[in-house]
Write a structure and sequence with these properties.
Structural class: mainly alpha
Number of domains: 2
Low-confidence stretches: none
Radius of gyration: 24 Å
Number of strands: 0
Oligomer: single chain
Number of helices: 6
Helix content: 40-55%
Length: 157
């Protein structure tokens, strides 16, 4: 069984309903029950759990920790549970460049500096590096200049 279906069925079981008109809000006890049901399913092999996840979460305690986050994720994102609302990211782009070692080093350096002038220089370097990272991830677009109206052709680089 897919994880999202397991969470949905567990929520239905705990609340005694098979559909919801608005976003589901669980008490702490109800959430714990849902997590317990899904964790049991994962450990029993009835709920999908990839080989990589099994290797990483190799004890019941680690599986329960994983399941707690997964249940929260599905309560936010599954339209059957969130009132049929399309999930919107709260802070889009907040992880931009998170895997870039230069950015990590600059941000670590920034946390050690108190001088306003040096902070400004580091902030500028961080901004420039973020722009470089984003630019390197953009797809190359091919534009047929002849198909564009004359007034927009000068915009093509």
């Amino acid at each position: 069984m897919k994880q999202n279906d397991a969470v949905f069925q567990a929520v239905c079981s705990v609340l005694g309903q098979d559909s919801f008109d608005s976003a589901v809000v669980l008490s702490k006890e109800q959430r714990d029950s849902v997590v317990s049901i899904v964790t049991t399913g994962i450990l029993a092999g009835t709920v999908d759990f990839s080989t990589e996840a099994q290797e990483k979460h190799d004890t019941p305690v680690k599986v329960k920790s994983y399941t707690t986050g997964m249940v929260s994720n599905h309560l936010r994102k599954d339209k059957r549970l969130n009132g049929s609302v399309k999930y919107e990211i709260k802070n889009p782009g907040s992880r931009a460049g998170a895997g870039d070692p230069t950015l990590k080093a600059l941000k670590a350096l920034r946390s050690t500096i108190t001088d306003a002038e040096q902070l400004a220089q580091i902030d500028e370097a961080i901004g420039n590096r973020e722009a470089e990272v984003l630019a390197s991830k953009q797809k190359a677009v091919s534009i047929n200049i002849e198909a564009l109206p004359e007034e927009f052709r000068h915009l093509v680089k």
